[in-house]
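Researcher: Sequence recovery benchmark, item below. Answer with residues only.
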């Protein structure tokens, strides 16, 4: 008995030791590239686990901007029968503030157990001088890419337009990809309108004496609404920069190293001038630009009960949406209704141009000749730096008959015509006796006409239902035919893309066509309807998960951007595999 208890205790002890050994082997740790850095430097943080985990939850990174990641790498090897596993999740961070910043715990679930990292404290100091060598990828990225805000006029007048164009310059020695906005500027002290850029085009231009490639990333037209020194907030972009290395792959293509980079255009100060006060004309409503005035009447002579239209039109270029039009003034004998506003305005890099008009409906109350006074409009021309006043000519309206008198006469005539006097001067215009005729129903009951009238509505209804069914069937067949054709094209272009891996231009053209045809097959939309916002909306309506939607849209963006930057064979393989996974995932959800 004693011996059996001893054996059992040993077995329990060995089992406990083995279980403890298993759990003690699992590790989940966070490490950083440095614990003290300047505010102009970047921080690399890596979360590493030695067993595959699920439901990874990163810290909130308060006090930092995420400029890269999460990047994930997995290593799994067997050496002499012993397995070594490592999974790393890496982020690149840029500090937003100086001082001591705490990075909270990250969490992950491994084998059903929750593991957490130890919180880290990072000290952020003032900006430091870069000590990077010329061959360092960060140094190369810093010196070969620039974001510049070009301001057309730094000293505009109040309500005078100027343009800000954000250009991204980069050297042909590097490639760029995965460009995204971290912070788009807002303009609270300006009326602003963003100009659409239909497609990013790579052009060449000299910047600081050197030749650079550049793309115009953002354009906005601004009209200052305050005077004095106003600040333009900076635009900030997050970019993946592809730095060439001295290594080459199996096919002899140069291998590129990807470096995350945050670029900003910096703040710009605009000095807004006040409009001259000494010569402001009476009735000035804040119009700034170059304008013309047109006042017209639809008719100058009216009969009774007629109306006319009076138009006041301002056209030219300037702040057309930011001032009030002059009002039409007329005598009390003319009734004027509230105007109908019509405008035709376009905004380009030179500001607003077009026309704006008020259309008044005028109805005379009495006959006679009435004066419509001239309309006066004043504006400030920033080119000549002078106020200009425009005046229309006076107009006279002649009304032949008074509408009130005419209506009264017509009323009396109609009343008298309806009255008939008998010999005893009594009224006889009201009929007191009815004269009814009896209809013989037997002439119509159960005749051919009766049954025809009864059946025809039902026949029309049946024919209409058949027509709708045939029309829907044809539409469905056409839709299915287009869907099958688009799906076939999608597979064809995916196959073509796979064959052209290594040829950047052909590969991304084929991949983009495959993605477009896949959406045509699933959503029954034409290629001309494609834009990223519509794709996201339609996929959301089909209940496609957010991760797949973002991945699909990002692939389309990568296809557009990849043609303008050098890419490695590995990157093309990754994009192709990513396309297959996303399409497969979306297929299951559809």
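Model:
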């Amino acid at each position: 008995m004693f011996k059996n208890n001893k054996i059992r205790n040993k077995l329990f002890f060995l089992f406990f030791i083995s279980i403890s050994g298993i759990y003690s082997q699992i590790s989940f740790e966070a490490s950083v590239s440095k614990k003290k850095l300047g505010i102009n430097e970047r921080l690399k943080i890596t979360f590493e686990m030695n067993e595959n985990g699920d439901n990874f939850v990163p810290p909130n990174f308060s006090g930092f901007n995420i400029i890269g990641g999460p990047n994930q790498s997995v290593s799994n090897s067997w050496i002499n029968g012993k397995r070594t596993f490592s999974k790393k999740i890496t982020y690149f961070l840029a500090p937003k503030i100086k001082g001591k910043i705490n990075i909270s715990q990250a969490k992950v679930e491994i084998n059903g157990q929750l593991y957490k990292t130890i919180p880290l404290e990072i000290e952020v100091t003032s900006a430091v001088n870069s000590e990077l060598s010329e061959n360092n990828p960060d140094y190369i990225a810093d010196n070969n890419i620039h974001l510049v805000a070009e301001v057309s006029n730094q000293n505009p007048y109040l309500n005078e337009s100027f343009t800000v164009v954000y250009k991204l310059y980069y050297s042909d020695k590097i490639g760029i990809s995965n460009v995204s906005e971290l912070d788009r500027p807002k303009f609270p002290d300006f009326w602003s309108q963003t100009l659409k850029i239909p497609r990013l085009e790579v052009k060449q231009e000299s910047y600081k004496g050197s030749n650079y490639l550049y793309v115009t990333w953002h354009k906005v037209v601004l009209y200052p609404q305050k005077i004095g020194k106003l600040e333009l907030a900076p635009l900030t972009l997050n970019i993946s920069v592809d730095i060439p290395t001295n290594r080459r792959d199996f096919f002899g293509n140069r291998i590129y190293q990807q470096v995350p980079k945050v670029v900003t255009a910096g703040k710009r100060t605009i000095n807004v001038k006040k409009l001259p006060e000494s010569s402001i004309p009476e009735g000035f409503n804040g119009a700034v630009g170059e304008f013309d005035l047109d006042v017209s009447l639809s008719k100058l002579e009216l009969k009774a009960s007629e109306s006319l239209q009076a138009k006041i039109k301002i056209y030219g270029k300037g702040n057309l949406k930011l001032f009030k039009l002059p009002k039409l003034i007329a005598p009390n004998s003319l009734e004027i209704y509230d105007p109908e506003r019509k405008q035709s305005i376009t905004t380009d890099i030179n500001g607003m141009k077009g026309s704006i008009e008020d259309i008044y409906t005028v109805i005379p109350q009495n006959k006679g000749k009435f004066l419509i006074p001239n309309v006066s409009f004043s504006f400030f021309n920033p080119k000549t730096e002078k106020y200009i006043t425009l005046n229309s000519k006076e107009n006279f309206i002649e009304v032949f008959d008074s509408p009130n008198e005419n209506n009264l006469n017509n009323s009396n005539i109609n009343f008298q015509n309806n009255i008939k006097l008998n010999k005893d001067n009594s009224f006889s215009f009201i009929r007191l006796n009815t004269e009814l005729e009896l209809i013989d129903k037997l002439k119509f009951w159960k005749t051919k006409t009766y049954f025809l009238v009864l059946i025809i509505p039902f026949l029309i209804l049946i024919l209409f239902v058949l027509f709708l069914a045939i029309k829907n069937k044809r539409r469905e067949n056409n839709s299915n035919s287009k869907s099958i054709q688009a799906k076939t094209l999608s597979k064809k272009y995916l196959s073509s893309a796979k064959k052209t891996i290594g040829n950047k231009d052909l590969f991304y053209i084929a991949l983009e066509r495959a993605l477009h045809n896949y959406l045509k097959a699933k959503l029954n939309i034409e290629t001309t309807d494609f834009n990223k916002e519509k794709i996201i909306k339609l996929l959301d309506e089909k209940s496609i998960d957010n991760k797949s939607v973002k991945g699909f849209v990002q692939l389309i963006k990568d296809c557009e951007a990849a043609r303008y930057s050098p890419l490695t064979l590995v990157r093309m393989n990754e994009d192709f595999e990513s396309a297959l996974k996303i399409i497969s995932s979306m297929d299951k959800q559809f």
